[in-house]
Design a protein that fits this description.
The protein is an all-beta fold and 431 residues long. It has one domain: Distorted Sandwich (Beta-galactosidase, Chain A, domain 5), CATH 2.70.98.20. It is 1% helix and 45% strand. It contains one helix and 22 strands. Strands 1-16-15-18-19-22-11-10-9-8-7 form an eleven-stranded antiparallel β-sheet, with no helix packed on it. Strands 2, 3, 4, 5, 6, 14, 17, 20 and 21 form a nine-stranded antiparallel β-sheet that branches. A two-stranded antiparallel ribbon has the order 12-13. β8 and β9 form a beta hairpin. The longest helix has 4 residues. The N and C termini lie far apart (61 Å).
Length: 431
């Protein structure tokens, strides 16, 4: 169906009701600390200072199944020392089951994702640099060096906008991002794996599917396909893309992060109150967890060692993207998994790691009550692809992904203009 070329085969604690304010204005911005020594050689180093003053640094390597792996990712806001965020980040699986039940693929581990790295033309990496990647276990050893890794910068629009009380001053700045991406062909599909590092410390992870629809003429008339030819014919089989990411956090240089879950409950007005009340509680996730997203629920990874200048623990919040949960397999029935680090647990399904006899092959089987001391984060985002006429030819990119957003990593907005730097914890009267 997909072959195109060489493919083979919680204790709960109530949150404080009020915010703690700083005792006084923020201190003057100190000079940034020394940059740590590089942890990789120059060809495998990515370092970008964005126009707004933020610098991102990381190392990269390429695996035969997962493709691009980013390691030792650090974020340096203006006026701050570098802050390590991630030990490593990569795709954990792309699971593709077809609605008719006749085919199901594990695109990373069993369909040649890594070997399908595509050469990119300069126009596909506007304003950036295309690095050469040596593809391990390449199907074509004579052409194993592929110009396949783009690093570039892009504007994303307003990072913020605020009009002063007198209307004589508008504070605004345009946000800038570092973009790192590859294109991998699997059968008729081409996957764009995109990592977007924002100047405010946010990291966006997305996979875009493009290329061509599989050329199957499926006409069961039972809702498992969609006609894309002239009249009721040339049905394309509907299918899902369940994409997993594997994140190993190293906040402030320590892998001993903590996981917290937050849930909010809204109650109707009572006792003469103007409006409903909203109570948020925190659950310390001390043991491995298969988590489900729900309204007003979120998770964060908290640094075990580092605090910002307000003495608040640094953390990163997991921000889910749009998803269609696939209930057909046990490992796709949850949105996020927190598992204790195990070197051999590399893929969310069809795991290839040598974990010993009887080891579970998918991430759901690794949630077995272990205490989290070095948590790994697995995020699952699903997309149900029901074809449409506009999918041909070529197929427009459809994106799926999520973000991690800094929460208390810096004491203020890292892009705060100098004239407003004294407003840390300060609320103007009447605002």
């Amino acid at each position: 169906m997909r072959e195109k070329s060489l493919l083979v085969g919680l204790s709960v604690v109530a949150l404080a009701a009020s915010l703690t304010t700083a005792a006084g204005p923020a201190a003057a911005q100190p000079k940034a600390g020394p940059v740590p020594p590089a942890e990789c050689s120059a060809p495998y180093r990515i370092e970008q200072k964005l126009a707004t003053g933020t610098t991102w640094r990381m190392c990269w390597r390429y695996e035969s199944e997962a493709g691009l792996v980013l390691e030792n990712v650090s974020y340096q806001p203006p006026g701050e020392s570098p802050i390590k965020v991630l030990n490593s980040a990569k795709l954990g699986q792309i699971h593709v089951p077809y609605d008719d039940g006749k085919a199901e693929y594990q695109d990373l581990t069993a369909a040649g994702f890594g070997q399908g790295l595509m050469n990119m033309a300069p126009g596909e990496c506007p304003g950036g640099t295309i690095k050469t990647v040596k593809v391990p276990e390449s199907w074509d050893p004579e052409h194993a060096n592929v110009k396949g890794l783009c690093t570039t910068t892009r504007s994303r629009g307003h990072a913020y906008r605020m009009q002063g009380d007198t209307a004589n001053k508008v504070w605004q700045t345009q946000g800038k991002d570092l973009l790192v991406y590859t294109v991998n062909q699997v059968g008729w599909y081409e996957y764009m794996t995109e990592w977007r590092f924002q100047d405010d410390g946010t990291v966006n992870m997305n996979v875009g599917a493009t290329g061509s629809l599989a050329p199957d003429d499926y006409d069961a008339g039972d809702g498992r396909g969609w006609p894309i030819g002239n009249g009721p014919k040339a049905y394309a089989t509907s299918h899902s893309h369940n994409v997993f990411w594997r994140l190993d956090f190293g906040l402030d240089g320590s892998s001993k992060g903590k996981i917290e879950q937050y849930d909010s409950v809204v109650s109707p007005p009572a006792n003469g109150q103007e409006g409903p009340t909203n109570k948020t509680t925190r659950t310390q996730v001390k043991k491995e967890l298969a988590g489900d997203a729900k309204n007003m629920r979120w998770w964060r990874v908290v640094s075990a060692t580092g605090k910002n200048k307000d003495r608040h623990a640094r953390s990163y919040e997991i921000v889910p993207g749009a998803t269609t949960k696939y209930p057909g397999r046990s490992y796709t029935r949850h949105d996020v998994y927190f598992t204790e680090y195990n070197k051999c647990e590399q893929f969310a399904s069809d795991n290839l790691g040598d974990c010993g006899a009887g080891a579970k092959k998918s991430v759901d089987g690794w949630v077995n009550g272990q205490t989290l001391t070095h948590p790994l984060v697995w995020v699952n985002v699903g997309f149900h692809h029901i074809a449409r006429d506009e999918d041909q030819q070529p197929m427009p990119v459809h994106w799926q992904g999520f973000s991690i957003a800094p929460r208390d990593v810096t004491a203020m907005n890292p892009l705060t203009p100098a004239a407003l730097a004294d407003q840390n914890g300060h609320v103007e009267s009447g605002s």
